[in-house]
Amino acid sequence: MGEKSIQKRKYILDTARKVFVEKGFKKVTMKDIVEACDISRGGLYLYFENTSQIFQEVLKLETQQDDDLFSDSIKEDSTAADILLVFLKEQKNELLRKNDTLTQAIYEYYFENQALPKKENRLKKQFDSAVMIIERLIEIGVENGEFYCEDPAGCARNIMFVLEGLKICAQTIGVTPEMVDQEIAYIFKNLGVEEV
Amino acid sequence: MGEKSIQKRKYILDTARKVFVEKGFKKVTMKDIVEACDISRGGLYLYFENTSQIFQEVLKLETQQDDDLFSDSIKEDSTAADILLVFLKEQKNELLRKNDTLTQAIYEYYFENQALPKKENRLKKQFDSAVMIIERLIEIGVENGEFYCEDPAGCARNIMFVLEGLKICAQTIGVTPEMVDQEIAYIFKNLGVEEV
Amino acid sequence: MGEKSIQKRKYILDTARKVFVEKGFKKVTMKDIVEACDISRGGLYLYFENTSQIFQEVLKLETQQDDDLFSDSIKEDSTAADILLVFLKEQKNELLRKNDTLTQAIYEYYFENQALPKKENRLKKQFDSAVMIIERLIEIGVENGEFYCEDPAGCARNIMFVLEGLKICAQTIGVTPEMVDQEIAYIFKNLGVEEV
Amino acid sequence: MGEKSIQKRKYILDTARKVFVEKGFKKVTMKDIVEACDISRGGLYLYFENTSQIFQEVLKLETQQDDDLFSDSIKEDSTAADILLVFLKEQKNELLRKNDTLTQAIYEYYFENQALPKKENRLKKQFDSAVMIIERLIEIGVENGEFYCEDPAGCARNIMFVLEGLKICAQTIGVTPEMVDQEIAYIFKNLGVEEV
DNA sequence: CATGAATGAGAGTTCATTCAT
DNA sequence: GATGAATGAACTCTCATTCAT
Prior knowledge:
The structure is a homotetramer.
Chain A: H1 3-23, H2 30-37, H3 41-47, H4 51-75, H5 80-96, H6 103-113, H7 122-144, H8 152-172, H9 177-190
Helix pairs in contact in A: 1-2, 1-4, 5-7, 5-9, 7-8
Chain A binds a DNA duplex through residues 2, 4-5, 8, 29-31, 39-43, 45-46, 49-50.
């Protein structure tokens, strides 16, 4: 596959992403993507076999970019509380951004593919690694005297479940920025930080 | 609609429920339901127009039954902590019961219908009313000296978000009974109750 | 399936037969048959799943009718030589009737399905039963003094292979009535009958 | 067309032959051949226009090689009966060799192209020339006193039809070596040769 | 010569929906 | 009310054929 094909592949994935953002995962057809990309019916099949494969590739790209963003916020020289706050604010922005999010599609995809061997369940890997990072962050904060927390691991897990809860609520019953802020404040209060 | 029709209507909804449990919402076709019910294709249309309508009716029945169950656990004469614990245990059982749950279907349905006028978003109504009940429960507990909590409303919301987070995770990345227990313990610890 | 459906089923098979006569087996598509029948795309699938199934059903009908024809020629009160001659003349007519014959389609079908369990290879059953009937006929002829033949079974098989040879040649390199007559004469000469 | 092209052409035809052996004629696509040859899609079109043309060329090569083989068996210095026997044994081997034979493909091809101007129907030419050779062989045998036969031409035609019958049966209903041997014995018996 | 990306026609199949009975 | 045959739109997937490089 030449340089050109790689570009086209990328183009298809970027365009397909928009389709998934708009329609979720289950409702998307190869035809939807063909039309969004404005390519020929057969053309798409030169690159991908079905919507599942396309979605997985979209997720791969997505994760890579997420990793980049993540390292950005970490490389700053700041306190644990600052870093945690930045992380939570990022999550807030993400989950309030209803119309440019793969969230629904991802949930729909994993509704069907939840049983995947653990190594292949990208969602689980992300969840677990986020828990570990947050846990480490809390430990550092505790050492620095920023936080008070007897069970950093439990707290980290709790934070992630709250975030997941906010995310799914944002997609189903709606969530306001204030509601998210309240949850963030609640998290910090549990860590012994009154003012955010 | 005669007596007979009402029975048939009920029969269709009960059968359709099983289909939604099995396949979620988006993938279910009228044909799926016709076949599950073993009625004629045209027959289904005498009762319902499309899968969306059927699903809404299924949800109505579901909610009625939930309300019944809910009142059960409340009418007992117990402490606030007991009631809260019973409620959380019920939620635990529900969310671990992967194969007899409308959860996926409900999420898929509200992914599409989130924008509904608030009055019609059953999920939101349920969420809000659960928050209020929990809040009241916490207030009672605080009055009784069972709990310590400065912000019962915030705490109630937080509990619901954790539950939603557990629910969605149960459907996508998998959740163990232990993980749920840890979250329940965490909730109680935040209320000043160490042992559950 | 009601009375009406049975008629339509029959209609489809009769029409499909014409298509198979015209195009053989492998080239025939569901679309070909839909168009020949002038029914809707989905309509055909109410009755049959694929061209293979349709062809098998066509063959069933065909065989039933053949059986009828066959008994006709037997029920006459004639000599063995007469009966054999009638049979061979029928075969002659059949194999020269290039444009109303399933022969090509049958061969193409069994090219693909030769490996079928013996019970399901209709062609083989027909071949074997024809051999047995001819064998019996020759034995009767020998008893009557009409034929001279030391190995009726071998002769019967030989006759069938000659007929098969004529049939396939008729479909590939062409065969004239005279050529068939010559073979018929040759068969009778081997049975000790000079004039036919 | 340069030396190199001639080699490639030959390579394509040899590879295509295998495809035809495997799938017959009608089902073979240009894509099948491209993939078997592991050349580019456009590349194939530089040499051939469609599967029909390729098949004709494959047949040409085939016939040349057959001629060679044929002359082999003839150049031996043997009796007519010997030569005939060798020929029939060769045919036997050929027709029992189900998995390396173009037979099906050839039949399928001529089902469609039977109407070709006689000069171009290679199959017919081969059939007629085989008849002539066998006829001549029988005449020689008769002169030598090896055979008894009043109608060498009729007998030769009969032999060829039997062979064609065996060939098509081998491809459709299955034929055992014993069955072929019986037919060969039957042929010789008709020529007055009891033991083969 | 050779490549392989691209196109678009066409086959298979499924379903929502209608309607005569 | 109830049936289920019928229709046609929509989707998936494959291939012959072309063409810029």
